[in-house]
Write a structure and sequence with these properties.
The protein is mainly α. It has a single domain (about 25-265), classed as Four Helix Bundle (Hemerythrin (Met), subunit A) (Up-down Bundle). It is about 60% helix and about 5% strand. It contains nine helices and four strands. The chain has helices spanning about 35-65, 70-90, 100-125, 130-155, 170-180, 190-205, 215-220, 225-240, 245-270; strands spanning about 20, 30, 160-165, 210. Strands 1-2 form a two-stranded antiparallel sheet. Strand 1 (about 20) and strand 2 form a beta hairpin. Helix 2 (about 70-90) packs antiparallel against helix 5 (about 170-180), helix 4 packs parallel to helix 6 and helix 5 runs antiparallel to helix 6. It is globular, with a radius of gyration of 22 Å.
Length: about 300
């Protein structure tokens, strides 16, 4: 007779009102049925932004198919804004749920994987024939890999100053800015433009380069709110008076930050000390699920 599996015991200060399970990261995991109606509503609020993100990305497909490339890019941009807000709202109401994390990545795959790939194909890659379709598929594959890796490494309470690989919204930002900046008439050697536009962000999404998250701007500490205010004001002014230039500068600069940071890491460490560079990455164990006992390789 086998022993029964050990059931996590309630912990926390008030076990009459909530039941806390064990989390590998040390986070408190609360069962939804132990929450009151208001708390459950707050817990689902971030998912409303995630849903808006997904619907904007899906609507972008229709716009791109109809040749409305600017509208398609705008819809992806709105999806980026919704993606920023769903995380900020989740942290503000202290309601980070496993469902929300998975739902967010599924929405991101549509808005920042499928939608940009299809927009790129309709906008310029279709002139390359089969190669153009392969490049669009390559973008989608890299975005899916990036999001899948994010799902298995995320820790809701850990220090998230850096992303591993270019975030998929950052890659989509390059597409958005480029669609607004160029008319899509790529002939002759200009056809290399769309190829680079796909390859560089896609490879960076699947890379292990670390990109600054800037999460502290979306959820600032009380003593740093002024930094967020200044950043938002500058962003709004730039988008109002020089919209295309501002979008290009932000998107292309962010993509270049991580490779440049990697190249200048030794100099920054020497001149400014350890605080000027990202701390070493923690190795993450790989997990494989065996189909059955016959799949276990014999030990030597």
């Amino acid at each position: 007779m086998t022993d029964a599996p050990e059931v996590p015991q309630p912990t926390g200060r008030d076990t009459d009102h909530d039941f806390r399970l064990v989390s590998p990261s040390g986070a408190d995991v609360v069962r939804p049925d132990r929450l009151d109606a208001k708390s459950r509503a707050l817990a689902m609020l971030p998912s409303a932004f995630t849903l808006a993100n997904m619907l904007c990305g899906f609507s972008s497909l229709r716009a791109a198919e109809g040749g409305q490339y600017d509208l398609a890019a705008i819809l992806i941009a709105v999806a980026v804004v919704c993606d920023i807000f769903d995380g900020a709202v989740a942290r503000a109401v202290r309601a980070i749920t496993p469902f929300g994390l998975q739902f967010d990545s599924l929405a991101d795959l549509i808005s920042f994987g499928v939608a940009p790939a299809f927009l790129l194909y309709e906008w310029s890659l279709h002139d390359l024939g089969l190669l153009g379709w392969v490049l669009a598929c390559f973008w989608l594959a890299c975005a899916a890999f990036r999001l899948g890796r994010f799902n298995v490494t995320i820790d809701p309470l850990s220090d998230k100053r850096y992303f591993i690989g270019l975030p998929s919204p950052g890659g989509a930002g390059v597409v958005i800015a480029s669609v607004f900046a160029y008319d899509g008439d790529f002939a002759g050697w200009h056809r290399a433009g769309p190829v680079l536009l796909v390859m560089v962000p896609a490879v960076l999404m699947a890379s292990s380069f670390r990109f600054t998250s800037f999460r502290w701007l979306a959820s600032p500490r009380p003593d740093r709110i002024w930094v967020t205010v200044v950043a938002v004001v500058l962003l709004v002014l730039g988008l109002v008076f020089v919209p295309v230039g501002t979008a290009l500068f932000i998107a292309y600069t962010y993509v270049a930050l991580a490779p440049l940071g990697w190249l200048t890491r030794p100099l920054r460490k020497r001149w400014f000390g350890e605080a000027a560079v990202a701390p070493p990455r923690r190795p993450l164990p790989s997990v494989f699920f065996l189909v059955g006992e016959d799949e276990v390789p014999p030990r030597s």
